[in-house]
Amino acid sequence: MAETKKKVHFIIERQDGPNSQPYTEEFEVDYRPALNVVASLMEIQKNPVTKDGKKTTAVVWECNCLEKVCGACMMVINGKAQQACAALIDHLEQPIRLTAARTFPVVRDLMIDRSVMFESLKKIHGWVDVDGTWEVHNDAPRQNPKTATIAYEISRCMTCGCCMDACPNVNQSSEFIGPAPMAQAHLFNLHPIGEYQKEERLDALMEKGGLASCGNSQNCVQACPKEIKLTEYIAKLNRDTNKQALRNLFNK
Amino acid sequence: MKNFDFWIRRIHSLSGVIALGAFLLEHIFTVSTVMGGPANFDKSVAALAAMPFLVPIEIIAIGLPIAFHGILGVVYALKAKNNPLRYGYWNNWMFYLQRITAYIAFIFIIWHVWTLRIVGKAMGGHLIGYDFMHKVLSDPLTFGFYVIGLLSSVFHFTNGLFGFSITWGIVSGPRGQRVVSIATLALFVLISSVGLTALTHFVK
């Protein structure tokens, strides 16, 4: 007796180019244990035929590490922004709806352009200046291990953009840089050499679209796949920027 | 000016608590004197009306901050893409409600000030007192709008205190934020109970 194979039903929002109109197509993929969304998209890529048997183009998406480290495969799955590689079919309600994270400009189908996040990292001075006055391995300033634990947590940010998509205040009509770059400013402010540029970072966060645009919806901390305590660091940055604003007002 | 946008946002936050919040509490306190009887209420209204420099104080300490906080707030709120149906977390609903109650309170306050302070008192020459308020609130529709306006204003204020505590970096950790969140919710229940009780005394 032929056993009917269990199928996984996908409804995917597609878009042919940055300025084209989105449309949906439905697909069915054979179920197998431990199947995830990226593996399902690979199946669709191998055989791009819709549920109704119509031949179509392969769905475009991005992925890289396949272990929730690189951030590339972030997309909106059943309404929530998350990593497609870590989204197990067994944990998802069917039909599974995939859309691009439309907070960002869509390149094609599920592929988005996240360069705004990198531009924000440039704005907030998201690096440590090494000016050559120390030998790298000798007598470098040390970091308290407790601070290092916090820094490690924030350093795991993979710029995936889940927090940006979840945040109601990050969108095309707002200048808000969003949670991820702000947490990075905090990370580099914690660094013993990085803190030399703390003032520049806090000043950058006080620009239009900076920290003060946060509306405290706290979606970011829920959406973060790396469990970075974003709201806690935003509150700490609030404290730091308030002090810096007063210093700018009275000390200069 | 350096940090201009930052300071505007911070003054927006500060005005909400120091000017609007303080006035809201004073207002509910004064209105609550009706619980001691109509004469008691009329006495406290008369005491306020006898304040020196009343009109400049009303304009500078109450009117302008409300206009500043309200207009700027609407501009900020309209920029958000509200998504509580996609991200149905508690704080996201609070974020959404903070904006909905803001719109309601904004309309309610304009109407409230227009009908009572401007048309009623300044233009109509009505003495704002128990008799006048009894007449106004005896209309069930008006009473209903007052209930909604009161609840929205109080919610916006108390939930705003939660945001305030984070904006000013007073609490940062999850435990501290949870404590403030519960405390502000309790404050909402307390203040709105007082306000609602006072409202019912006008139609007794």
TrEMBL record, chain A:
Superkingdom per UniProt: Bacteria
A GO molecular function held by the record: succinate dehydrogenase (quinone) activity
SUPFAM superfamilies, per database record: 2Fe-2S ferredoxin-like, alpha-helical ferredoxin
Pfam families: Fer2_3, Fer4_8
Coiled-coil ranges per UniProt: none
Cofactor: [3Fe-4S] cluster; [4Fe-4S] cluster; [2Fe-2S] cluster
UniProt keyword annotations, A-Z: 2Fe-2S, 3Fe-4S, 4Fe-4S, Iron, Iron-sulfur, Metal-binding, Oxidoreductase, Tricarboxylic acid cycle
EC number: 1.3.5.1
InterPro entries: 2Fe-2S_ferredoxin-like_sf (IPR036010), 4Fe4S_Fe-S-bd (IPR017896), 4Fe4S_Fe_S_CS (IPR017900), Beta-grasp_dom_sf (IPR012675), Helical_ferredxn (IPR009051), SDH/FRD_Iron-Sulfur (IPR050573), Succ_DH/fum_Rdtase_Fe-S (IPR004489), Succ_DH/fum_Rdtase_N (IPR025192)
Domain 4Fe-4S ferredoxin-type residues, every copy: 148-176
Swiss-Prot/TrEMBL GO biological process terms: respiratory electron transport chain; tricarboxylic acid cycle
The keyword Iron-sulfur is assigned to this record: yes
Family (UniProt): Belongs to the succinate dehydrogenase/fumarate reductase iron-sulfur protein family.
Name by which UniProt lists this protein: succinate dehydrogenase
From TrEMBL, chain B:
Membrane-spanning ranges: 46-79, 100-123, 143-170, 182-203
Tree of life domain: Bacteria
GO CC annotations, alphabetized: membrane
SUPFAM superfamilies reported for this sequence: Fumarate reductase respiratory complex transmembrane subunits
InterPro entries (alphabetical): SQR/QFR_C/D
Keywords linked to the UniProt accession: Membrane, Transmembrane, Transmembrane helix
The protein's name in its UniProt record: Succinate dehydrogenase subunit C
Organism (species): Pelosinus propionicus DSM 13327
Lineage: Bacteria, Bacillati, Bacillota, Negativicutes, Selenomonadales
